[in-house]
UniProtKB/TrEMBL annotation:
Organism whose genome encodes this protein: alpha proteobacterium IMCC14465
A single Gene Ontology CC term: plasma membrane
UniProt-recorded Gene Ontology molecular function terms: protein-disulfide reductase activity
A biological process term (GO) from this entry: protein folding
Pfam families, per database record: DsbB, VTT_dom
Domain of life from the UniProt record: Bacteria
Regions that span the bilayer: 21-39, 55-76, 108-132, 138-163, 175-196, 208-225, 232-251, 303-324
Bilayer disposition of the protein: Multi-pass membrane protein
Domain VTT: 42-153
Compartment(s): Membrane
Protein name as it appears in the record: VTT domain-containing protein
Stored InterPro entries: DedA_domain (IPR051311), DiS_bond_form_DsbB/BdbC (IPR003752), DsbB-like_sf (IPR023380), VTT_dom (IPR032816)
Amino acid sequence: MRQSLKKLYEWCQSLATHARAKWALAGVSFIESSFFPIPPDVMLAPMVLADKSRAWFYAFICTLASVLGAILGYIIGRYLFELIGSPILDAYGAQAAFDKFTSFYADWGFWIVIVSAISFVPFKVATIASGVVAMEPISFLVACIIGRTIRFYGVTAALMINIRLWLFNPLRRGIMISLGSLGILAAVFGFEHLMGLAPCPLCLNQRIAFYVALPLGLIAALTGTKKPTLSSASFMLLTLIFLANAAYGGYHAGIEWGYWPGPSSCVGGRMEITNIEELIKSLENDAPPSCSEAPWRLFGLSLAGYNMLASLGLALLASLPILYKRHRKS
């Protein structure tokens, strides 16, 4: 089996230099989403490096063909599982991964498909399993588009961009921090207004760091050339803000896990009603959600946990030049 996979891998690599490489790329991307074992990245990487002027076109081919192939995988799981789907899983020894996906789907649904589409786990397992559990087709399609776009455009960007130049350039780094903060705020507002997850007081407090980081990141970016001292000070301040917010997110996550009590102003719940006056008062004063109850989790982490990770990542991005200089000196 290993020898066969090696031959397939080498064959896919050879297709990257073929006269009709882009069609081969589309074909491999399509079939990999339903039954083929070799991911299209094997072809995408050398094709991007060989012709960077068409890199984003190649990423588009991968994304489109892979999403179309995912539809085939979904159909196999939904209507042809016993005939085709089960033998595919058995052939690759993927039954355990399939069982794990279906168990995850009960809790995380839409999100587990996105994660599967981004990660390097066999995407065919996710597409077939999505059909088996009868995931809502539009949700499945949207999840595949989001995940595969992030995957293939991310791989292409990593090959195209000089990472060190991007991360150490104040303009780009500041803009990345501002855009990252904007994206996080957009996500939490989506959870609140689209998914109906009302924020508790601690959740609202954790948004403040991103509100501040939006303009501060732009200040750090735009002053990098003419006023480097101001830019450096802004990045230092951003680092401290994000570290503090990460600690705050960890504190909130600890409350949710029951490691320590939350503030008295954040207990949630409703007052005990014993008469009509208290009933009227309870209706007029809707209590905020409890800080100790996580309404949503993915891979065991609540939004507070993900805020902690995101804040740590942005703190690292803001402080990269300082850390690099210290590393060089040591």
